[in-house]
């Protein structure tokens, strides 16, 4: 372990961070396969300086494991592929292993039919979506992922929770190691960021939520007891509703209201389904991959040439720094995670 600012931050080599995450998860009772898959996702978040989806998520996972809601050992069941649709039953276990088990069949479906759909049902999803879409772009495919969560978010014009934070992630394969990727919650702030504000005792940015009486608030505790807001008013609200329909009703799994009802105050991660779509640029472009890639690069260069930043650039810069120097972890969080490992 090397020190970044020994009073507030430590830097951990990624292998050490992965080992620590596995130790914590194993201590919670997870099978080795689940612990390894989850640790890979958690390390990716910390490596890319996504604090709300990195090592902090071990606390969420520990709370979920202690709730008794999640199956810590269940092996995902990959059902026989029917056309372009791949179905995986996570069997009320955490989601990363279900995704990893379904990924090969999704890639094969996309290459066979031009597009493929991975439907994951009955999963506890605690992580960001961008690691999943990056895994798909590594195969030369474009990807779109949608998932609901707990109903924490009010619709535009309302003040009672209906939607989850309902993230949407997209990935586009580029020449070289860094794809174009975005991952955004349809809420004005991610739930993990709200929790980090609560833990730090800092106010939320304006416009993120309302208290239990429907009054605007920047107090993370009051907003957690009231409702979060969607981003962009009615536009974010419409997208949040789309996620509920596409990654809930369409795939035969719970919407966010059902997930929260199942939780029943246990404080576990949301339990629901996930829809992941993969697209083969070779087949969908009629076989002219070079022209498709050229058009994409012209577009992306038109963004960066005027000094604008692509959505994934900050994460990729943080990734390079973490690979050289180790991932930065707040010392207080590191000590909290160490305690969970013993």
TrEMBL record:
<dbReference type="InterPro" id="IPR003767">
    <property type="entry name" value="Malate/L-lactate_DH-like"/>
</dbReference>
<keyword id="KW-0560">Oxidoreductase</keyword>
<dbReference type="InterPro" id="IPR043144">
    <property type="entry name" value="Mal/L-sulf/L-lact_DH-like_ah"/>
</dbReference>
<dbReference type="Pfam" id="PF02615">
    <property type="entry name" value="Ldh_2"/>
</dbReference>
<dbReference type="InterPro" id="IPR036111">
    <property type="entry name" value="Mal/L-sulfo/L-lacto_DH-like_sf"/>
</dbReference>
<comment type="similarity">
    <text>Belongs to the LDH2/MDH2 oxidoreductase family.</text>
</comment>
<dbReference type="InterPro" id="IPR043143">
    <property type="entry name" value="Mal/L-sulf/L-lact_DH-like_NADP"/>
</dbReference>
<protein>
    <submittedName>
        <fullName>Ldh family oxidoreductase</fullName>
    </submittedName>
</protein>
